[in-house]
Amino acid sequence: MSNFTAGKESLCGSCYKLFTVPETWSNAQAKCRSVGAQLVKIESAVENDFLTRTFPKATGSLGVTYWIGLSDQVEEGKWTWTDESILGNYTNWGRDNPNDLSGNQNCGHMVIGNGFSLGSLYFTGYNDGEWNDLRCDYPLAFICEKVSY
After folding, report:
1. Cβ contact 29:40 at 8 Å
2. Which one of 13, 19, 34, 136 has the lowest number of neighbouring Cβ atoms within 10 Å?
3. What's the rounded Cα separation, in Å, for the pair 128 and 147?
Protein backbone atom coordinates (compact mmCIF):
# COMPACT_ATOMS: atom_id res chain seq x y z
CA MET A 1 0.00 0.00 0.00
CA SER A 2 2.82 2.41 0.73
CA ASN A 3 4.23 2.12 -2.80
CA PHE A 4 1.89 4.11 -5.04
CA THR A 5 4.00 3.65 -8.14
CA ALA A 6 3.58 -0.13 -8.26
CA GLY A 7 0.76 -0.97 -10.66
CA LYS A 8 -0.06 2.61 -11.60
CA GLU A 9 -1.09 4.09 -14.94
CA SER A 10 -0.66 7.71 -16.04
CA LEU A 11 -2.35 10.36 -18.18
CA CYS A 12 -1.82 14.12 -18.44
CA GLY A 13 0.24 14.56 -15.29
CA SER A 14 -1.80 12.25 -13.07
CA CYS A 15 -0.99 8.74 -11.91
CA TYR A 16 -3.81 6.30 -11.24
CA LYS A 17 -3.81 3.12 -9.22
CA LEU A 18 -6.51 0.51 -8.81
CA PHE A 19 -6.96 -1.03 -5.37
CA THR A 20 -8.87 -4.28 -5.64
CA VAL A 21 -9.52 -4.99 -1.95
CA PRO A 22 -13.06 -3.64 -1.45
CA GLU A 23 -13.55 -0.75 0.97
CA THR A 24 -16.35 1.62 1.90
CA TRP A 25 -16.12 5.00 0.18
CA SER A 26 -14.69 6.70 3.30
CA ASN A 27 -12.14 3.95 3.91
CA ALA A 28 -11.15 4.01 0.24
CA GLN A 29 -10.52 7.76 0.45
CA ALA A 30 -8.48 7.26 3.64
CA LYS A 31 -6.34 4.62 1.90
CA CYS A 32 -5.78 6.94 -1.06
CA ARG A 33 -4.73 9.75 1.29
CA SER A 34 -2.34 7.41 3.10
CA VAL A 35 -0.34 7.18 -0.14
CA GLY A 36 -0.56 10.90 -0.94
CA ALA A 37 -3.47 10.55 -3.37
CA GLN A 38 -7.26 11.05 -3.56
CA LEU A 39 -10.10 9.00 -4.95
CA VAL A 40 -10.04 9.76 -8.67
CA LYS A 41 -11.46 13.07 -9.90
CA ILE A 42 -12.71 12.64 -13.47
CA GLU A 43 -12.72 15.95 -15.34
CA SER A 44 -13.06 15.00 -19.00
CA ALA A 45 -14.31 12.39 -21.43
CA VAL A 46 -10.67 11.67 -22.32
CA GLU A 47 -9.88 10.86 -18.68
CA ASN A 48 -13.07 8.82 -18.25
CA ASP A 49 -12.32 6.82 -21.42
CA PHE A 50 -8.71 6.28 -20.31
CA LEU A 51 -9.87 4.81 -16.99
CA THR A 52 -12.49 2.66 -18.73
CA ARG A 53 -9.87 1.25 -21.11
CA THR A 54 -7.12 0.89 -18.50
CA PHE A 55 -8.75 -0.90 -15.60
CA PRO A 56 -10.11 -4.44 -15.77
CA LYS A 57 -13.59 -5.43 -16.73
CA ALA A 58 -15.16 -8.54 -15.22
CA THR A 59 -14.86 -11.79 -17.12
CA GLY A 60 -18.57 -12.63 -16.72
CA SER A 61 -21.61 -11.09 -18.33
CA LEU A 62 -21.66 -8.04 -16.03
CA GLY A 63 -18.99 -5.44 -15.55
CA VAL A 64 -17.27 -4.19 -12.42
CA THR A 65 -17.58 -1.00 -10.45
CA TYR A 66 -15.05 1.25 -8.73
CA TRP A 67 -15.43 4.09 -6.25
CA ILE A 68 -14.56 7.53 -7.62
CA GLY A 69 -14.04 10.68 -5.56
CA LEU A 70 -17.53 12.09 -5.98
CA SER A 71 -20.17 12.50 -3.25
CA ASP A 72 -23.07 14.62 -2.06
CA GLN A 73 -22.63 13.72 1.61
CA VAL A 74 -22.18 17.34 2.72
CA GLU A 75 -25.27 18.69 0.95
CA GLU A 76 -27.85 16.48 -0.79
CA GLY A 77 -27.81 17.05 -4.54
CA LYS A 78 -24.57 19.10 -4.50
CA TRP A 79 -21.99 16.70 -5.89
CA THR A 80 -18.40 17.51 -4.98
CA TRP A 81 -15.04 15.85 -5.45
CA THR A 82 -12.82 14.86 -2.53
CA ASP A 83 -10.80 18.06 -3.00
CA GLU A 84 -14.08 19.92 -2.24
CA SER A 85 -14.43 21.24 -5.80
CA ILE A 86 -17.94 21.20 -7.26
CA LEU A 87 -18.75 18.77 -10.06
CA GLY A 88 -17.86 20.69 -13.21
CA ASN A 89 -19.12 20.72 -16.77
CA TYR A 90 -18.11 17.12 -17.49
CA THR A 91 -20.31 14.38 -16.07
CA ASN A 92 -21.01 10.84 -17.19
CA TRP A 93 -24.00 9.80 -15.11
CA GLY A 94 -25.87 6.73 -16.28
CA ARG A 95 -29.52 6.97 -17.31
CA ASP A 96 -31.72 8.46 -14.56
CA ASN A 97 -28.74 9.03 -12.26
CA PRO A 98 -27.95 10.28 -9.75
CA ASN A 99 -31.29 9.16 -8.33
CA ASP A 100 -30.64 8.90 -4.57
CA LEU A 101 -32.65 5.67 -4.46
CA SER A 102 -34.06 5.12 -0.94
CA GLY A 103 -32.67 8.51 0.08
CA ASN A 104 -29.23 7.24 1.02
CA GLN A 105 -27.13 7.05 -2.16
CA ASN A 106 -24.49 9.70 -1.60
CA CYS A 107 -21.29 8.37 -3.18
CA GLY A 108 -20.29 8.03 -6.82
CA HIS A 109 -18.87 5.03 -8.58
CA MET A 110 -17.91 4.17 -12.15
CA VAL A 111 -19.31 1.12 -13.93
CA ILE A 112 -16.91 -0.58 -16.33
CA GLY A 113 -18.91 -2.93 -18.50
CA ASN A 114 -22.69 -3.05 -18.93
CA GLY A 115 -23.70 -3.46 -15.29
CA PHE A 116 -22.58 -4.68 -11.90
CA SER A 117 -23.69 -6.82 -8.98
CA LEU A 118 -23.70 -6.18 -5.25
CA GLY A 119 -24.15 -9.54 -3.59
CA SER A 120 -27.41 -10.96 -4.96
CA LEU A 121 -28.49 -7.64 -6.52
CA TYR A 122 -27.87 -7.05 -10.22
CA PHE A 123 -27.83 -3.67 -11.95
CA THR A 124 -27.85 -3.62 -15.76
CA GLY A 125 -28.39 -1.15 -18.58
CA TYR A 126 -25.19 0.85 -18.16
CA ASN A 127 -22.81 1.95 -20.86
CA ASP A 128 -19.11 1.40 -20.29
CA GLY A 129 -17.70 4.13 -18.01
CA GLU A 130 -20.99 5.55 -16.76
CA TRP A 131 -21.37 6.80 -13.20
CA ASN A 132 -23.98 5.90 -10.62
CA ASP A 133 -24.77 6.94 -7.07
CA LEU A 134 -24.68 4.30 -4.36
CA ARG A 135 -24.76 3.95 -0.59
CA CYS A 136 -21.32 4.88 0.73
CA ASP A 137 -21.08 1.86 3.02
CA TYR A 138 -20.88 -0.73 0.23
CA PRO A 139 -17.38 -2.18 -0.08
CA LEU A 140 -16.04 -1.65 -3.61
CA ALA A 141 -12.66 -1.62 -5.30
CA PHE A 142 -11.45 1.92 -5.96
CA ILE A 143 -9.19 4.09 -8.09
CA CYS A 144 -6.76 6.56 -6.53
CA GLU A 145 -5.26 9.51 -8.39
CA LYS A 146 -2.02 11.29 -7.57
CA VAL A 147 -1.45 14.54 -9.44
CA SER A 148 2.17 15.14 -10.46
CA TYR A 149 3.46 18.66 -10.00
Report:
1. no
2. 13
3. 25
